[in-house]
Amino acid sequence: QVHVVESGGRSVQVGDSLRLSCVVSGLTLSGYFMGWFRQALGKEREFVASIDRNGGNPYYRDAVKGRFTISRDNAKNTVSLQMNSLKPEDTAVYFCAVRAILDAKWNFWGRGTEVTVSS
Description:
- The protein is mainly beta.
- It has strands spanning about 5, 10-15, 20-25, 30-40, 45-50, 60, 70-75, 80-85, 90-100, 110, 115-119.
- It is built from no helices and 11 strands.
- Strands 2, 4, 5, 6, 9, 10 and 11 form a 7-stranded mixed beta sheet that branches. Strands 1-3-8-7 form a 4-stranded antiparallel beta sheet, with no helix packed on it.
């Protein structure tokens, strides 16, 4: 059984930095793409960032480019999201997701970790 568990979310001030972590168990992470999504209150879940199975080709939504960095450690089955220069519009529940290489959809999801950015 696959488990995806996020951590690191909390309340911060505008301009602060925060690092989210995600630990995956039940599969060998090196065979999967990893991603972060977020969902703000009253809005649909949106893509934030992804990274390929070898830690290359990071891809970001425009709103976080230059501020967020996704990384992974396959030896530890973890993926992280370093978030700098946080803005109020970054406030959301952040979800970690796992996708098999040949799948079009994300296969496994965590329950999310909440980030609140206050001015």
